Amino acid sequence: MLNLDGLKDIVGDDQALMKDMLKQFVETTQADMTHLQDAIAAGRTRDVANLAHRIKGSCFVIGATELADIAASLEADGRKDHSEMFSTLAEQMTAAFQKVVDNICAL
Fold first, then answer.
1. 8 domain-assigned
2. Reported pTM
3. Is residue 17 part of a domain?
4. DSSP string, 23-81
5. Range of the domain at 39
6. Which pLDDT score is estimated for 1?
7. 3-state helix, strand, coil in the chain (%, to 5)
8. What total of structural domains would you count in the chain?
9. Does 24 fall in a domain?
10. What is the pLDDT of residues 46-93, one digit of tens each?
């Protein structure tokens, strides 16, 4: 679920910094996911795309590729104003995010 190699390249052997970055990821992404749900409910496709893009970038930093891939799909749909899959992708993102959080907590 997590490939921390890229993050280790950034922080080196500094475990405290790694834990801090992972904590910040969880907090920031949780807030972004809440805003994403609000944007989906309101039909704001541009906001959906922007928030999904932000989440995707954060995921790549910590190696959460499954979550990043789902966010990329949501971003692409948002940029094309294709809202049909928003709810399904948001549910997938929520489940994938929980897996990432569980993996982080297990470190």
1. no
2. 0.94
3. no
4. HHHHHHHHHHHHHHHHHHHHT-HHHHHHHHHHHHHHHHHHT-HHHHHHHHHHHHHHHTT
5. 29-105
6. 74
7. 80, 0, 20
8. 1
9. no
10. 999 999 999 999 999 999 999 999 999 999 999 999 999 999 999 999
